[in-house]
Amino acid sequence: MSLFDAFRLDGKRVLVVGGATGMGAAAAEVALGLGAEVTVLDIAEITTVGAKAVHVDLRDTASIDAALAAAGAPFHVVLCAAGVADGTEGIEKTNFLGHKYLLERLLAADALPRGSAIGFISSAAGLGWEKNLDDLKVYLAIEDVAEASAWAIERKRADYVWSKQSICAYVATQAMPLLARGIRINAICPGPTDTPLARANAETWLGFGAGYRAEVGIEAATPLEQGYPLVFLCSDAAAGISGITLITDAGHFAAGNTGVWPADTGAVHYLLGKF
Ligand SMILES: NC(=O)c1ccc[n+]([C@@H]2O[C@H](COP(=O)([O-])OP(=O)(O)OC[C@H]3O[C@@H](n4cnc5c(N)ncnc54)[C@H](O)[C@@H]3O)[C@@H](O)[C@H]2O)c1
């Protein structure tokens, strides 16, 4: 035993929702490397060696119920990593409402014991959530998935930015009630990361911040570079951290926000909801 053991996940059961590819798959690999027993849920084929694979469609609550029954319980770490881009039918469900439903089912079943942790993947695109907090609270309070989905569609908010703002607001508002049950919740907000999803939307997703990256001499993040902090936030080494949305964008928003990289100040201020 050493102090470093707090970073490990030995003996823990980890559920990765949306872990077939990209950051979720990388996080699953990290968790396996840290000694966890890993179950991956996804709509796509899951090929991670050493993980239990369970099919789920996050747009369908019956599918989520069936997946949770197949996955078993309890879980000490839940990573909510599934996501799709604008233009995908049911984006509000895949990116947020399905994860929320899944977590609420786990909580109702007492399947997240004291000491467990939840880690979401939000996005730098969701960082302007505070300006919309009143509306987000109304949305988060709608328990029924179909009703919440209809609410978002009616208000033209069934889109990527709203889904990521929802995650940030959910993390911030759930941190206290969850901690009263001994559970922590956090999110990472990645910048452009080289995954199948980003490649499929390369111009907008990987084009964002390209000038900043060229200036500092880096590439878009790798999935692993996002998987590490996501898993860390759910380890005992992060026991003092809850309710945060950690910006994992290699300093891009910090530079844009402060005018250190003025080329992106307008875009960053827009995404932060500053005007
Ligand atoms: N790649 C980026 O630049 C970037 C930046 C910021 C945030 N993100 C977010 O990171 C998360 C991971 O995305 P990624 O870039 O690794 O892409 P990815 O496509 O590799 O991973 C997303 C996963 O979600 C799964 N999924 C999609 N629809 C589903 C459904 N209905 N039910 C269950 N699973 C479903 C996919 O099959 C896939 O395995 C997403 O939430 C995305 O919004 C990505």
TrEMBL record:
<feature type="domain" description="NAD-dependent epimerase/dehydratase">
    <location>
        <begin position="14"/>
        <end position="125"/>
    </location>
</feature>
<dbReference type="InterPro" id="IPR036291">
    <property type="entry name" value="NAD(P)-bd_dom_sf"/>
</dbReference>
<dbReference type="InterPro" id="IPR051122">
    <property type="entry name" value="SDR_DHRS6-like"/>
</dbReference>
<dbReference type="Pfam" id="PF13561">
    <property type="entry name" value="adh_short_C2"/>
</dbReference>
<comment type="similarity">
    <text>Belongs to the short-chain dehydrogenases/reductases (SDR) family.</text>
</comment>
<dbReference type="GO" id="GO:0016491">
    <property type="term" value="F:oxidoreductase activity"/>
</dbReference>
<dbReference type="Pfam" id="PF01370">
    <property type="entry name" value="Epimerase"/>
</dbReference>
<keyword id="KW-0560">Oxidoreductase</keyword>
<dbReference type="InterPro" id="IPR001509">
    <property type="entry name" value="Epimerase_deHydtase"/>
</dbReference>
<dbReference type="InterPro" id="IPR002347">
    <property type="entry name" value="SDR_fam"/>
</dbReference>
<protein>
    <submittedName>
        <fullName>Oxidoreductase, short chain dehydrogenase/reductase family protein</fullName>
    </submittedName>
</protein>
